[in-house]
Design goal:
The protein is built from three helices and 36 strands. It is mainly beta and 545 residues long.
Length: 545
């Protein structure tokens, strides 16, 4: 039998101070068997080894010792000793306190104060509440039995045993019926894979979903997530986050969007609305209306007003296309691709094409189909253009399958040069040399001493080499082995002879500032839908089987 420890006369039990209403003491008599013992608001004494009614000690309560058991509806309360207030169905319980409700709820503590008029149980010291697969640990728990809600207010922890998740906070409110918990102040959610820190968090132990309502940081080995609104399914390890959520991956990539979906198990994230994907290692920023990033595959893409900004040099490259993506190839080499309606701008070079690819393996920027490149006053066009970048600056370029270079000299006159294969070199962001191999055709308008144009030069050969000085002044032009052609005064020239067959001037589509990569979308779409005349010409010039 447990020994009851009496209190000082001037220190009344807690329930007596706050909830007991009885003015006189009456002996407790056994309940007859036919009595209704399921009255939810009534506490019945089921058992005690010793009962003491002492008017000198108190007129409000009885003293119970040894194997004490109470019953309130379908809930049982156990302890070593207690003060029992029969008139108000209140009690103070001490030592090995335990409460059981069917097979769903068990509560353990050192001390229990139950207030019958409030239907509230105050449990203190080493409190443990077990609700199916959920365990609540604290030193101070108030339990509203009628509403089936528990509160702690001086620090506590809820453990989701089924999901291996632990939540701690200064205060919390836990609804046993709905499994919903509201954690406030210094909230920490800890699992095997990540840790979540915030000032307030809602968590459901049934669905294992954490609802984020305040600024929250989620840290794991692979990334850090910043958000202030959304939900996180701790069982499925996926989240939908709102209000400019941000994911900072350990591989140097950061994803931001109005709405972000992230699946930790599959290591991928999606974002919608003002999406920004930053790659600090490769010095590139992708932005658009929709973004996707797969951490495991190292693959990312954006669509909808998509733009890439490459900032490895002081002069940023701005690139726009319907879809932009970055990936690692089978050799773990970073590759950047752009599809449909590509336009790019940098102060030294601008261009358009249908699709584009840049590989870090060879630092070659490949432009495909309706490719047009501008450098200074010159326009270079072809079915395909390959540009070699050295320190993110054009070093050389080639047109492997026919190319045409043109420069506006005045009025309707354009210097023009075409051939089957072209190779150009650049120095200090200027064209320095140009070599043309096969079917070389040239149209020139030499400037007279008085700065006028009155002659048209047409020449053809097999090879050509053009050398330029600084400021793009022509140093020399050499054509060999045989050259044919003519010089015609302009007044005798037919208009059809002004241009080479494949000549087109695309200056209206040339980006002249970073923002221009988004303009004239309809004209770009119309051009990219047209047949590639230069590709058709290449087919006609190729030997037939």
């Amino acid at each position: 039998m447990c020994q009851f420890v009496s209190r000082a006369d001037d220190q009344k039990p807690r329930a007596a101070q706050q909830g007991a209403k009885a003015k006189t003491v009456e002996r407790i008599t056994p309940q007859i068997p036919k009595a209704n013992r399921y009255q939810r608001d009534k506490v019945f004494l089921e058992n005690a080894d010793e009962l003491i009614a002492d008017e000198n000690r108190s007129k409000d309560y009885q003293i119970l010792r040894g194997n004490v058991r109470f019953r309130r509806g379908d809930m049982y309360m156990f302890c070593d000793s207690a003060y029992y207030y029969d008139k108000t169905s209140s009690l103070d319980a001490f030592g090995n306190v335990r409460m059981n409700q069917a097979d769903t709820l068990s509560v353990f503590a050192d001390v229990l104060h139950y207030f019958g008029d409030l239907h509230v149980a105050q449990l203190r010291n080493n409190v443990r509440l077990e609700n199916r697969s959920t365990t609540l640990l604290t030193d101070s728990l108030d339990y509203d039995i009628a509403a089936n809600i528990g509160y702690y207010f001086d620090g506590g922890t809820i453990v989701d045993n089924k999901n291996n998740t632990e939540l701690t906070s200064r205060t919390a409110r836990y609804e046993m019926d709905t499994k919903q918990a509201d954690f406030v102040t210094d909230v920490h959610l800890i699992s095997d894979e990540y840790e979540m820190n915030t000032s307030r968090l809602l968590y459901n132990t049934g669905s294992h979903i954490a609802t984020i309502v305040e600024e929250t940081v989620i840290v794991s080995d692979s990334n850090t997530v910043y958000t202030s609104n959304g939900w996180y399914n701790t069982s499925a390890d996926d989240a939908t986050l709102y209000d400019r959520a941000q994911i900072n991956a350990r591989d140097g990539k950061n994803l931001v969007g109005d709405t972000v979906y992230y699946n930790r198990k599959r290591n991928y994230g999606e974002a919608r609305g003002n999406v920004v994907l930053t790659d600090d290692n490769d010095k590139i920023i992708l932005s658009g209306d929709y973004g996707y990033h797969d951490e495991a595959a190292h693959y990312s893409y954006v669509t909808g007003n998509a733009r890439a900004r490459e900032f490895s040099q002081s002069d940023t490259l701005h690139l726009h296309a319907d879809t932009l993506c970055t990936l690692l190839d089978h050799d773990s080499i970073r590759v950047v691709k752009a599809f449909r309606g590509v336009r790019f701008y940098r102060s030294d070079v601008q261009g358009i094409c249908d699709s584009l690819q840049l590989s870090q393996a060879d630092s070659i920027l490949n432009l495909y189909r309706h490719a047009v490149l501008w450098n200074g006053e010159r326009q270079i066009s072809g079915a395909e253009i390959n540009i070699h970048l050295k320190d993110s600056t054009a070093d050389w370029a080639r047109l492997p399958n026919f190319g045409l270079m043109a420069q506006h000299v005045g009025e309707d006159y354009y210097d023009q040069l075409s051939g089957k294969y072209m190779f150009a070199t650049f120095d200090k962001k200027e064209l320095r040399t140009l070599d043309v191999d096969g079917n070389v055709t040239v149209i020139l308008y030499p400037q007279e001493d008085d700065s006028t144009y009155n002659k048209h030069v047409h020449a053809e050969s097999s090879y050509l080499r053009l050398v330029l000085r600084e400021r793009q002044q022509i140093d020399s032009i050499k054509m060999w082995p045989e050259v044919s052609g003519n010089v015609t005064p302009l007044y005798l020239l037919k208009r059809s002879e002004l241009y080479l067959p494949d000549f087109q001037w695309y200056d209206h589509l040339r980006p002249k500032r970073p923002e221009d990569v988004f303009t004239d979308e309809d004209k770009m779409r119309q051009l990219m839908n047209e047949p590639d005349k230069q590709s058709r010409r290449r087919q006609l010039l190729s030997p037939q089987p």
